[in-house]
Amino acid sequence: MASKIAPKFAYTIIYARDVEKSVAFYSKAFGYEVQRLDKSRRWGELQSGHTTIAFTPLKQHETEGLTGKVEIPQHDRSAIEVCFDYSDVDAAFKRAVENGAVAVSEPEEKEWGQKVGYVRDIDGNVVRLGSHVRQ
Q: What highest taxon heads this organism's lineage (predicted)?
């Protein structure tokens, strides 16, 4: 019998070339407050409501032996996409690009009732900026 207690989603880890720069970039480009940047500069966190956005170096000794080396994809799109929900997607897109994000696709209304735009972060990860889906 399955437990009725669902776990709380704690955080998403973004592997970065430079943790300190990525934390600063996400804070400025997407409007998140820095929650923590450790003295070693190998771990950083941003406040994002009920969960945390965490950053750690691409070369992560703690998990490399267990799960393998982190590799930057050699194709157009990585296997993960970070999505942020905004009430004003146009303003969020503009802010992101003004703060170093690379524009991929300008915000547009989608047939399912959401406005969506795409950018890449300073490590090339795709970031989706979208409005809450209207029901």
A: Eukaryota
The residue type found at 101 is A
Q: Domain coordinates of the chain in residue numbers?
A: 8-71, 76-135
Helices marked H in 14-84:
19-30, 61-67
Does the reported pTM lie above 0.70?
A: yes
pLDDT single digits (tens) 54-104? 888 776 655 555 555 666 655 566 667 889 999 999 999 999 999 999 999
Give strand ranges (E) for the chain: 11-16, 34-37, 44-48, 51-57, 81-85, 102-109, 115-120, 126-130
